[in-house]
Write a structure and sequence with these properties.
alpha/beta, metal-binding, Purple Acid Phosphatase, chain A, domain 2, 367 residues, five-stranded mixed β-sheet, 17% strand
């Protein structure tokens, strides 16, 4: 019976390590990037940025797949939030896989699961960006989808957030078609209002800026689900996509016109996006650094990652943090299983040898 006990200990150790410890071990390799310039360096903003968790809904995927992958996302996020203690967390869209397919009751359950998985200590904001799987592509957007996303997650169109004197503009990429629809018109009006607000921060003495709130000006940071226009990941300085595909405007990336409009109105200094499920660092059409964040879910990427950004009003540094790879967990369980088989084989060999010796001894007694 000792070999059964040994196998039980091996499997239990593998289970505890893979399901509770491994995320901490892997994520400890990551560190907040440091800004070397002296100005503002004593109190930078530390932002954790992830994308595309794609929580499964009632229609797609097996329940066991949903249970296991979401368990690992929960463990990874909780490990990251404890280790890094960010000032703010951004999730860049496609929070849900079936957000545009479920009833209001199912959406409530979706939101409850999402907020439970991505729970943060009090005082750390979780800012959730709308993605095409949350409210639908442009052709499918409906006031019902938009209003409930805004109702439950406080964001659906275009918003300006100011944290530690750093300005973030969060955009609904699907409302950037500029075709005169109600969502596009609303988004364009909000973009123009934010543009005026930023202008008045920069030039507070102008007559039209008398009633505008007086935050110190710094160039904003753009956050949205779709990347700005690029032909493909061949334009990336770094990327981890397993193969290169040509991107379609308005489907994989923003159109050239929408990208140029954002540049003209906002004059951003840095951009983050998701949607492609793969990491990319590029200098985009606007001449600024853009980071496309890989999917946070094993279901979309076997080696997921997220971004750590240290930001001040006049500088930033961004680093990629690799998460626990799915293959590492599978290999760990496979190794534990093989070790159990070796223990069992060794024990069987001992039993066979013992029986042979006992049979030989009995044979000698008979003779």
């Amino acid at each position: 019976m000792r070999f059964l006990y040994a196998c039980f200990v091996i499997v239990l150790c593998a289970l505890i390590f893979c399901e509770y410890v491994a995320d901490f071990v892997v994520l400890q390799k990551c560190k907040w990037p440091e800004i070397k310039r002296k100005k503002y360096v004593d109190d930078p903003l530390r932002a954790m940025i992830l994308a595309d968790p794609h929580l499964l809904g009632p229609h797609r995927g097996h329940w066991l797949d949903k249970l296991y992958r979401e368990w690992h996302m929960t463990r990874a996020f909780q490990a990251a939030s404890r280790l890094f203690q960010p000032d703010v967390v951004f999730v860049l869209g496609d929070l849900f896989d079936e957000g545009d397919m479920v009833s209001d009751k199912q959406f409530q359950e979706y939101v409850w699961r999402y907020l439970k998985m991505f729970h943060l200590p009090p005082g750390i904001p979780l800012i959730s960006v709308a993605g095409n799987h949350d409210v639908g592509f442009h052709y499918k957007m409906h006031p019902f989808f938009m209003s409930r996303f805004e109702s439950y997650l406080n964001n659906s169109s275009v918003n300006l957030y100011t944290i530690k004197q750093i300005h973030f503009v969060v955009i609904n990429s699907m409302a950037m078609e500029a075709d005169g629809c109600m969502f596009c018109t609303q988004a364009e009006d909000e973009l123009k209002n934010i543009s005026r607000t930023l202008h008045c921060m920069k030039y507070p003495l102008e007559a039209e800026c008398a009633r505008t709130r007086r935050h110190p000006y710094s160039q904003p940071i753009l956050l949205q689900h779709f990347p700005t226009y690029r032909i493909s990941d061949t334009m990336c300085e770094e990327h981890d996509a397993p193969y290169i595909e040509t991107f379609r405007e308005r489907f994989h990336v923003l159109s050239k016109d929408a990208t140029d409009k954002l540049g003209k109105l906002l004059k951003p200094r840095l951009a983050f996006a998701g949607h492609s499920h793969h990491f990319c660092h590029s200098v985009n059409r606007l001449g600024i650094d853009e980071y496309t964040v890989a999917s946070f879910s094993w279901r979309n990427k076997v080696n997921p990652s997220f971004m750590l950004a240290t930001i001040t009003p006049d500088d930033y540094v961004v680093s990629k943090c690799k998460m626990l790879p799915q293959q590492f967990v599978f290999n760990s369980y496979l190794s534990a299983g093989m070790l159990c088989l070796i223990v069992i084989a060794f024990q069987l060999r001992k039993c066979i040898q013992s029986r042979r010796q006992s049979s030989a001894a009995d044979h000698r007694k008979v003779n």
